[in-house]
Design goal:
Elements (H helix, E strand, L loop, with lengths): L2 E6 L7 H9 L4 E4 L8 E5 L2 E5 L12 E4 L4 E2 L1 H13 L6 E5 L3 E2 L2 H11 L13 H10 L11 H21 L7 H15 L3 E2 L1 H8 L5 E4 L26 H5 L9 E6 L2 E3 L12 H9 L12 E3 L1 E2 H11 L3 E5 L9 E10 L2 E3 L6 H6 L1 E8 L16 H14 L3 E5 L7 E3 L5
Parallel strand pairs: 1-10, 1-11, 2-5, 2-10, 5-7, 6-8, 7-9, 11-15, 14-16, 15-19
Antiparallel strand pairs: 3-4, 12-13, 16-17, 16-18, 19-20
Helix pairs in contact: 3-4, 3-5
Bound molecules: guanosine-5'-diphosphate, 6-O-phosphoryl inosine monophosphate and magnesium ion.
């Protein structure tokens, strides 16, 4: 297998960063294909913890080419501060390429993100990083792209036209308007720092695919997909493997190895339906042991049992060919574990995700119960070393999804990763 896509199968924060970093050690190229700094990918090795928001998780392994592809939305200020943060910690020698077609996040996007969140009834609980408004501008054909920074006349004209409209909207929403010259000068400064990274990454990637191992790193999770997620409580891009060709400029035939990253339970940050959510002392224990607080926003994550309706939906829309089960250690010490195998909706058993979020809210999970395990498993190095009940739990996931568990994880550190089957 020379390429792999790492996809979040739930509502994000499944541990994609950890697995991307682990597999990146064997890859030549790591590509982030969508999202922006709404993502927070945590990586731990040699006792050090890193939180990446925009940079591909390959930057922590030497000699990789790291690509930020056209499907991303990039806040240059956040990007520069992330690069500086790594440099301060001695990580300086990464090779970074940014697509000339990736869209740029501006301060008016961030301002509008929070203005829209505070208006109307459907509060999404966004990360307020300007992600939705930037993708809106992309679809509305009024966005600016990284490549525009390389032609200053073009950039200036388009920014002026965009800002004129945005200032009217900001006024309507009782927000402060933005001065063009200040904004332009600020972005000229960013341009000086990042211009050498900008190129046609589709051309580059197609060349690299000829003989290099490429890892595609998704952000968010399929249930946050703009098309297949719990709309409207979703992000504004598609994390599915199906979006990789579009978001990177390659042929679909390159995508046939898709590793679904799944938490051994479920979490969600922000608003929206979450059928297996529960709150009691077990949920509190999971939140505490799993350190379930957002990497980007610090918000406490909502906790739920594993949901196989979600997983089978993800499998279908994203073509998952292998699973990596994360945070298995967090379930140690819980007497009885529950797995949702179907929903009960208006008295009927269903196993397909309803398209209307209000209907999903009315779904009651149908659970099977499994005995938990009491042992600490954080030192386990193979499947065989797991307690019987942990093996049964993994086997049950495999049986009910029909997808092989190729990897699992028993702690945040790079070392606490077990490969049952090679994925790259
Ligand atoms: P991502 O957004 O999918 O990359 O995931 P996040 O980094 O936002 O959240 C996953 C969290 O779980 C991070 O704090 C990781 O360090 C942590 N983590 C990953 N795998 C494991 C694991 O197997 N066990 C434990 N205890 N923590 C893990
Ligand atoms: P990673 O890559 C978890 C959620 C937000 C909100 C919704 C829309 O770390 O898994 P947005 O700011 O994208 O418009 O917010 O999506 N969200 C995430 N939740 N992990 C993420 O990324 C997320 N990125 C966005 O909380 O509910
Ligand atoms: Mg995260």
């Amino acid at each position: 297998m020379s390429n792999v896509v790492v996809v979040g199968t739930q509502w994000g924060d499944e541990g994609k960063g950890k697995i991307t970093d682990f597999l990146a050690q064997r890859a030549d190229v790591v590509v982030r294909y969508q999202g922006g700094n709404n993502a927070g990918h945590t990586i731990v090795f040699n006792g050090e913890k890193f939180a990446l928001h925009l940079l591909p998780s390959g930057v922590l392994s030497p000699d990789k080419i790291n690509i930020m592809a056209n499907g991303m939305v990039i806040n240059p200020e956040a990007l520069i501060s992330e690069i500086d943060g790594l440099k301060e910690r001695g990580i300086t020698d990464f090779d970074l390429r940014i697509s000339n077609r990736a869209h740029i996040v501006f301060p008016y996007h961030i301002e509008l993100d929070s203005a829209f969140e505070n208006t109307g009834s459907d509060k999404i609980g966004t990360t307020k990083r300007g992600i939705g408004p930037t993708y809106t501008d992309k679809a509305f054909r009024s966005g600016l792209r990284m490549g525009d920074l390389l032609d200053l006349d073009y950039f200036k004209n388009r920014l002026k036209a965009a800002l004129d409209i945005k200032n009217n909207v900001l006024k309507m929403m009782n927000r402060e308007t933005i001065n063009f010259d200040d904004l332009y000068q600020k972005y000229l400064g960013y341009r000086e720092i990042i211009k050498n990274y900008i190129c046609d990454t589709s051309v580059l990637l197609n060349e690299l695919l000829e003989d290099k191992k490429v890892l595609f790193e998704g952000a968010q999770g399929v249930m946050l997909c703009i098309d297949h997620g719990t709309y409207p409580f979703v992000t504004s891009s598609s994390p599915t493997a199906a979006s990789v060709p579009l978001y990177t400029g390659i042929a679909p035939r390159h995508i046939n190895n898709v590793l679904g990253i799944i938490k051994a339970y479920t979490t969600r940050v922000g608003e929206g339906a979450f059928p297996t959510e529960f709150s009691n002392d077990v949920a509190d224990k999971i939140r505490k042991t799993g350190n379930e607080y957002g990497t980007s926003t610090g918000r406490p994550r909502r906790i739920g049992w594993l949901d196989l309706v979600v997983l089978n939906h993800t499998k279908r829309v994203s073509g998952i060919t292998g699973l990596s089960v994360m945070l298995l250690d967090v379930l140690s010490g819980i007497q009885t574990l529950k797995i949702c195998v179907a929903y009960k909706y208006k008295g009927e058993i269903i196993n397909v995700m309803p398209s209307i979020v209000d209907h999903l809210n009315e779904c009651e999970p149908v659970y099977i119960e499994m005995p938990g395990w009491q042992e600490d498993i954080t030192e386990v190095t193979s499947f065989d070393e797991l307690p019987m009940n942990a093996k049964n739990y993994l086997n049950k996931i495999q049986e009910l999804t029909g997808i092989n568990v190729k990897m699992f994880s028993v702690g945040p550190d790079r070392k606490q990763t077990i490969e049952v089957e090679k994925v790259l």
